[in-house]
Amino acid sequence: MPLTPGGGRVGSLLAGCFDDQLADVAARLGDTGRFVELQVADFEAAAVGLPSGGTARCLVVPADQLPDDLWGRLQERRPIGLVTQVDGDRVLGTTLVTAD
Questions:
Q1: Chain segment 6-18, per-residue pLDDT in tens
Q2: pLDDT, tens only, 34-84
Q3: Do 64 and 32 contact (CB within 8 A), yes or no?
């Protein structure tokens, strides 16, 4: 789910259950990507059709650390893959993989 510097959101994650938490994490993230643990309560889960609440581990990466080629491919709706090298919960780098 892309988040803009001004706090705008494009899309959502799990029907919006984690959107506010992700926005808070992204605002405090700084200049490096990280794995983060997010929580959803049973009530929130039921509201979006999930069987129960729980924890999700998400990777949050600042947009300027993603490959430049990614954005054009997303706009063109071309299939892509992202391979992210991590050390513990820290992101070391992300590489774009295409069908080519």
A1: 666 777 777 777 7
A2: 888 888 888 887 877 778 888 888 888 888 888 888 888 888 888 889 999
A3: no
Contacts for 33 with CB less than 8 Å, ≥ 6 apart: 59, 60, 61, 62, 65, 84, 90, 91, 94
CA distance 40 to 59: 16
Concatenate the DSSP letters of all residues of the chain into one string: --B-TTS-B-S-STTTTTHHHHHHHHHH-TTS-EEEEEEE-HHHHHHTT-SS-EEEEEEE--GGGS-THHHHHHHTT--EEEEEEEETTEEEEEEEEE--
d(CA 6, CA 76): 24
Is this structure's pTM higher than 0.70?
A: no
Q: What tokens appear for 30 in the block?
A: 């700084």
Q: Residues with Cβ < 8 Å from 100, sequence gap 6 or more?
A: none
